Amino acid sequence: MSVSRHENDSEESLIEAFETTLSIRPSTTDYYDEINDISIDHTVLPDTTINDTRDLSSTVGIEELEENERISEQIPKFKTKRRYSLLPRITEFKKIGSPGLEEYYIQQKLDPKYDEILRPSLLIDEKLIKYHHTFSDFISSNPHISRESPRFQFDSEKTLVILSPYSSEHSFGRKWVTKTYLSTIFERPQRLLATCIGVASAITMYPFYYKLINSTKRSSIFSSHVRKIHGRNWPKKLFELCLESHEKLNNDELEVPQDWNTGDIYLTPKTINAIEGVIGTIETAVDALFKVTPITGTTSTTGIAETVQAPAPASGKAATATASSTSSTSSSSSTKTTTTTTTAATTATTATTSTSSNGSLSSNYNENNTTSHRRKNHNLAFVVIRPPGHHSHACLPSGFCLLNNVQIGIEYAFEKYGVTHCAILDIDLHHGDGSQDICWERAGFTGDYGQQEEDEIIDPKLNPRDDYGKRFATYPKVGYFSLHDIKSYPTELGFATKENIRNASTCIMDHDLNIWNVHLQAWNNEDEFYKHYQTKYVAILNRANQFLNNCKKQYEEENQEYLAQLAKYNKMISTKPHLSAELEKPTPPPCYKPLIIISAGFDASEYENPQMQRHGINVPTSFYSTFTQDVVKLAKLQTNGKVISFLEGGYSDGALTTGVFSHLIGLTNDDGLLWNHTWGSEQVVKELIKGCKKNWTPYKNPKTDITIWANEVIKLGRSMMPNCILPANYIYKDQSQENNREGMVRTQEIDRDGKFRVVNKMVKDIMDTKGGIGILESPKSRKDEGLNDRADGHRVTRHTRSYYKRV
């Protein structure tokens, strides 16, 4: 390999030929990043220790802690006890009576005590001002890109990338822990920065294939589509725990129940902001694919600005609209639109349908096949949210996950748009035990950690269980198809329970269940990997195809039966009108309206941290592009091309930057093979993860294609979510306490309206290139809490479930 060095920037390139789609020139504007940023990088490259910034000095034996965590994560009795710990407790809030959940929610948010505590970060750039400026500079510096780069005919054919800026509000808050302990917290806000750099990588290659937006929508944790998945009690319990964490963290107390895995789950008051933002972003994504927008030039509630133009109206039909590629203001037109709204009032849940005068059924699915509808709505969306969700059961948080994002999205799509069937394709390294468990509940069975009857928001008497504990399956019908490592959590090699292994290996396509699990295999080269892919891994796509085919066939059969019954009914009414009061009109089946959702975890990447990927099982970077492209092909056959991808796992900078890059290259409406093998090389990883580091500065005079390209990628990525560029040792602090103790420090920052404003000391610490938030001292000794009970005198700062079981 040749190494080229340049005097001005110390860049190096180990790639003989790095290929971009078009030649890229350095942007003209000097990059200036006023934020002192850093991310704990867990990326490990073969035979190198590049970018390992973790502090290895600690008073805690980290190997012992990790071993205890792995053992304690698999204690069978843990989850059976947890169910009772999630039931409502008597708290100060209940003294005011027993209000409805929405009233309860409003009362807590109106408490002045929480106004300052829950105030979102001033660094949130809701309008993406910095990104739009950086992107414009990139295009103006490369005018040939506008002329030569491929693009789609309609703006809606682009892949929609939706950022959730409030996701960074969920952060670790135990300020007494050591630096080494903090380095073991994998699920952190800094993941968003690496994800954004991955997004920027795809955008620089195909600038006109993607549309980037912020979802500033925040939705209630007590929304019906959340409670239908998680029941009455868990959302309320989670909300209470977040509020209670304010006092506990200030008093140096553990903020989560003692029988939880404290290394996986943490809370702060601002976790509420993140959860509300995640739910709102999920809704934004679903709206973008299915919402029929009135003809207007204003920005919709989803945050997507569109200009639409109505064609000549068709008789008896709502006027359709075509999305424009730019946002502008136009005069409003009064146009009749029809929105399909579905509610689950009974166990035989019905979706909105329309019957023509001759008795034939009009399917919402078929309506989506019109050209005008495809032009108006996006078909492909990638949703950047955290915390992840696929480990979350209905009433059990687990594996970094508090709520099941995918299942909430499916329920929202069903409630609002009548989406009746959905195939979940999960490619996270770990089995999505929570998503699968909820599928068992949807099929009418009792979930392993599901809702109790008193927890359900729909009266269980409307759909009673039979003698064997099964109910009628309800809509929406959801299939779960997963590719994962059977040796990793929740089936950790050497610590797995029989129950977890069985769940992660289930394959069934009957009894209202559509579940198929495939296990990853070791490989030595990409040829060997793709033999596994073509012969084994593709099974999850084939089974998803089978599921959707069967559902469509079942709908057609039910619809034919309905039409036959309707014809008999109409004949009876016409010949014997006196019997009309005694006859019951047939009910049409819910219109078949399918969707595919990807649980896009990137922790199976070849560049993931070995601590997360402990058994040597991974996938090449090209897999994410190949698999995603196959999903898009499946969607064009089954769902009219509609796919939503939700970010799940991925915990090293290298795994997220390259994994998201590859995933988005596959998630396009271009049928060609777009991924280039040079894009997944080690040198690309080395260049991209530099942008996730403290005080990143671009090359002053880059000479090679890869460094020129990486410069522009990192500038774009860092401009997307400035609030996720945080110090490595960043820990949540109580803003109100900081303001009272230290007062306001005058410094300027552009607010959401593009104006300069004064920000507080916490924001100053984040922004100051010479500062940063340090690790505070450990809390004072509390003998009654057993924090100093080690025989060797070392301080225990992280208790596991096995510890509490022993106590």
Please write the CATH class name of the largest domain.
Alpha Beta
Which sequence of strands runs across the widest sheet?
Answer: 2-1-7-13-12-8-9-11-10
Helix content: 25-40%
The CATH topology of the largest domain is given as: Arginase, Chain A
Broad shape: globular
Largest sheet: 9 strands, mixed
Given the structure, what is the number of helices?
A: 24
The average pLDDT value, as a whole number, equals 77
Computed structural class: alpha/beta
The assigned CATH architecture of the largest domain is 3-Layer(aba) Sandwich
Task: State Rg.
Answer: 27 Å
Number of strands: 15
- How much of the polypeptide forms β-strand, as a percent range? 5-15%
Keywords: Coiled coil
Domain Histone deacetylase: 216-542, 592-663
Protein name: HOS3
GO molecular function, one term: histone deacetylase activity
Describe the structure.
The structure is a single chain. The protein is an alpha/beta fold. The chain has two domains: 62-288 and 378-548 and 592-767, 3-Layer(aba) Sandwich (Arginase, Chain A), CATH 3.40.800; 292-311 and 319-327, no CATH class. It is built from 24 helices and 15 strands. A nine-stranded mixed beta sheet has the order 2-1-7-13-12-8-9-11-10, sandwiched between helices. Strands 3-4 form a two-stranded antiparallel sheet. The longest helix is centred in the last third of the chain and has 37 residues, at 539-575. The protein is globular and about 90 Å long. The N and C termini lie far apart (58 Å). The model is unreliable at 1-16, 34-40, 49-99, 295-374, 741-750 and 755-805 (pLDDT under 50).
